[in-house]
Amino acid sequence: MEAHSEDSNNKAESAVAPSTSWFQNFWKKLTKPEMLKLIQAVSGGVIATYYECHLISLIGAHWGPEAFDGLLAFFRPFYQSRWFEPLLVGAVLTHLTVSGAEFIRVIKNKEELYDKVEPKSKMPSPWGLNQISSHLMAGGIFVHTSATRLPRLWLPTYAANFRLVHSTLVDFPYIFYPYYTMLSSMMFYHFIYSNYLISRRYLLGRNDHKTHSLRNKTLWYSIMASGVGMSVSIVMAFGGHYYRVRN
């Protein structure tokens, strides 16, 4: 009986082993740095498409509530369509998951969280800024999308507009002024650097974006600064600092 029992256990173990081995091999391939970068690039491309539409609307805030709301009404049928919105949500969740996996891998291997100008410096390189912006942008868009779309489950007519953004700045200025500025500036930099990376790697066939951008770090820091300046101006417009906003 004991021998028969041992044979049964061995057969059961051998039956389970292949599926476990298959999943482990799949997970190892999926979590390789090269694969994670590819997944991030694809999901980032979807997020960047959303950002391009949204940036035009945000800049329109300088011309008042009617201009911003009009641009939102123009672009909403596209990025809130039945085919693109699920794609956007999936891309954001994928970007967050990959960012989390990459963060765990970096911590586990005791690597640097972001690329730096010099080994002993804390100053991020242009590529390091892109790494930082990637994580902050994905988290920010997840919060933003949840805040603007989940209420529609209870309020079908709910729609974010200029006055909603304005009210958050008036009621909670210490939270939303830095939050909106951070999210917009991170998205601006990430959008530009990602397109630069794609054009350099896939159009020119050069995988030297880190060293090339580092040699031109003054330009990239200027791009980051201009993104922050633009974002501050956008938030000031929403806050009613350029003209009076009627509630």
Shape: globular
Oligomer: single chain
The total beta strand count reads 0
Task: Indicate the low-confidence ranges by residue numbers.
Answer: 13-18
Classification by helices and strands: mainly alpha
Give the second-level CATH assignment, the architecture.
Answer: Up-down Bundle
Strand content: under 5%
Distance between the termini: 83 Å
Structural overview:
The chain has 247 residues and is mostly helical. It has one domain (33-238): 3 helical TM bundles of succinate and fumarate reductases. The protein has 9 helices and no strands. Helix 2 (33-59) runs antiparallel to helix 3 (65-79), helix 2 (33-59) packs across helix 4 (84-108) and helix 4 (84-108) crosses helix 5. The longest helix has 31 residues, at 173-203. It is globular, with a radius of gyration of 23 Å. 24% of the residues are buried. The model is unreliable at 13-18 (pLDDT under 50).
Write the layout of secondary structure elements.
Blueprint: H1 2-30, H2 33-59, H3 65-79, H4 84-108, H5 126-149, H6 162-171, H7 173-203, H8 209-215, H9 217-238
Helix pairs in contact: 2-3, 2-4, 2-7, 4-5, 5-7, 6-7, 7-9
Compact description:
The chain is mainly α and 247 residues long.
What labels would you give this structure?
mainly alpha; 9 helices; 247 residues; 3 helical TM bundles of succinate and fumarate reductases
